[in-house]
Amino acid sequence: MPAADDLLLRAAEANAASFAAIASASAGGCRLSEPGVLALATPAAPERPLFNAAFGLGPGSVAHAYDRLAGFYADAGIPRWTAFVDPADTESVAALAAHGHELDSEPRMMMAQTTEIAGTDAPIDLDPAPTPETIAALNDRVYGYPGSFARTLRSLDGLDACVAVVAAEPVACALAHDAAGDCHITLVATLPAQRRQGIASGLIHRLVRRGRERGCTTTSLVATRSGVPVCERLGYRDLGPVQMWERAGEG
Questions:
Q1: Predicted model pTM
Q2: Which of 241, 236, 226 lies closest to 113, judged by CA?
Q3: Taking Cα atoms as reference points, which of 196, 195, 193, 177 lies closest to residue 185?
Q4: Are the C-beta atoms of 173 and 188 separated by less than 8 Å?
Q5: Among 26, 40, 201, 218, whose Cα sits 20 to 30 Å from the Cα of 248?
Q6: In whole angstroms, what is the distance from residue 30 CA to residue 182 CA?
Q7: Helix (H) or strand (E) holding 143
Q8: Distance CA 102, CA 180 (A)
Q9: Rounded distance, CA 221 to CA 49, Å?
């Protein structure tokens, strides 16, 4: 088993790659690559810092690239953007705070071997041909956003999608994206009336099993604090927090 720091970096890189895939077809979407940093701008959803994020993938990388990142988002017309950084990266944390970013949240990075998660199928009815529109609509509805996901997720190229249906209506979804042998799970959403029925878990099991069949050896995801126990029951292990530092736009 690789060292904990190596696993955390693997999960962070997979998380960044998944967001790049999700926003790749959005109108006007662009990215900036710097040593140890991947930054994404999604002008179609400027109100969503999550889709306008810089991912720090090396010690001090966000601090060293900060001026270029600020210029990148200004040129893209993005007033609010977020930086994902390891809390142990004190240099980047200090730089973000000094430039007016505020700590918005500290979700947990989680990972497991695919063999530990790819369980047997639960009896869930699936949409045989999920579309980006269906997945975006579920996420917008579940998380209360006015079309942010619909304007961002325009294609499923490079993504594996699962949508659960009840009486032919979509009620839950999840996506997977492969990055360097890791099957990263994201955009998990379940309508309130269908929660606590094992539907989301069943979708994750399916996606991870399919990822294992594609050759992925690990699976990762980012969980809220309340979601950590659920993910642990699935078999994921908590690798520690990632900090999200948001810079609010003027006005």
A1: 0.95
A2: 236
A3: 177
A4: yes
A5: 26
A6: 24
A7: helix 132-143
A8: 32
A9: 19
Instruction: Report the alpha-carbon distance of residue 46 to residue 173 in Å, rounded.
Output: 24
Please give the backbone phi and psi of residue 188, each rounded to the nearest 5 degrees, phi first: -85, 125
Per-residue pLDDT tens digits of the chain, which is 251 residues long: 456 678 999 999 999 999 999 999 999 999 999 999 999 999 999 999 999 999 999 999 999 999 999 999 999 999 999 999 999 999 999 999 999 999 999 999 999 999 999 666 678 999 999 999 999 999 999 999 899 999 999 999 999 999 999 999 999 999 999 999 999 999 999 999 999 999 999 999 999 999 999 999 999 999 998 889 999 999 999 999 999 999 986 53
In this structure, what token pair is assigned to residue 64? 């060293």
Q: What is the rounded distance in angstroms from the CA atom of residue 35 to the CA atom of residue 65? A: 8
- What is 47-94 written as a DSSP string? T-GGGSEEEE-STTHHHHHHHHHHHHHHHTT-S-EEEEE-TT-HHHHH
Cβ atoms of residues 81 and 118 within 8 Å = no
Domains and CATH numbers, the chain: 4-108+241-247 (3.40.630), 112-240 (3.40.630.30)
What are the φ and ψ backbone dihedral angles of 100, each rounded to 5 degrees?
90, 5
Contact (CB, 8 A) for 40 and 53: yes
